[in-house]
Amino acid sequence: MRTPIIAGNWKMNKTVSQAVELCRKLESALQDSPVEVVVCPPFTALSAVFALGLTKVKLGAQNMYHADKGAYTGEISPVMLKDVGCQYVILGHSERRQYFKEDDELVAAKAAKALEYGIKPIICVGESIDQRRAGQTAEVVVSQTKGALAKVQPDQVTDVVIAYEPIWAIGTGETSTGDDANEVIGTIRATIAELFGEEKAGQVRIQYGGSVKPENISEFMNQPEIDGALVGGASLAADDFINIVQYK
Ligand code: PGA
Question: pLDDT class for 33, splitting at 50, 70, 90?
């Protein structure tokens, strides 16, 4: 059985005080649930959120660099993320691939480094609208999945989370259908099976992301291959995120 995981990707939003306020609301409103809940605030708020000692919400970062320390101005290392309680890190988000030119090789290096420190990577893959129209969705996600997992050891792969996020659905209000996302996620799982075997692939959690809202979360969570969601915009409002986590 795979434990579902719903993560909030706050992107470049929330000051420290806003982050603390939102996390306090989540902690007091969330019931004990079978879903693992993660929030990924900006780096500047991680320490203050960690100091809250949350019990119902785990902490993740939105990116990291693949070195322990050193002369990498502006970067954040896995040592630093561990120090502020991060158990997860989002890697290879399409915004990082698009605006910061991250490629599969870099994502692979980061994923391996995160795992070395016991931080679970949430690796994002997904096709653009042009690739979808050209019928290349499967090809794109297979190649991104293989690329990102290139340096992952067999005994580590079950700590990896993959987020399937079709780029055209991110922040647009457009979503994939549950059936369609389920099919693509099945393809991703088959790729992991090809690399690491069926048994391991059956334990890897794969999320859907892209305009997930309280109104559509159950359409995705009811699918057999979909193990959770990576939520952007709707994770910024306490009520919306609580309703998503407590989907029926
Ligand atoms: P969205 O973003 O929920 O605002 O579409 C999802 C994401 O980018 O992870």
Answer: confident
Q: Where are the beta strands (DSSP E) in the chain?
A: 5-9, 36-40, 58-61, 86-91, 120-125, 161-164, 205-209, 228-231
22 lines ligand 1 (CB under 6 A): no
pLDDT tens per residue across span 124-164 = 999 999 999 999 999 999 999 999 999 999 999 999 999 99
pLDDT for the residue 56: 95
- Can you tell me the distance from the alpha carbon of 237 to that of 53, in angstroms, rounded to the nearest whole number? 21
Task: Tell me the per-residue pLDDT of 63-100, one tens digit each, with 9 for 90 and over.
Answer: 999 999 999 999 999 999 999 999 999 999 999 999 99
Q: How far is the CA of 197 from the centre of ligand 1 (A)?
A: 30
Atom number of ligand 1 nearest to Cα 213: 3
Ligand 1 contact, 181 CB (< 6 A): no
- Between CA 49 and CA 39 the distance in angstroms is 10
- CB of 211 closer than 6 A to ligand 1? yes
Q: pTM for the whole thing?
A: 0.98
Tell me, using a 6 A CB cutoff, whether residue 36 lines ligand 1.
no
What domains lie within the chain, and their CATH numbers? 5-245 (3.20.20.70)
**Cα–ligand 1 centroid distance for 93 (angstroms):** 10
Length, in residues, of the chain: 248
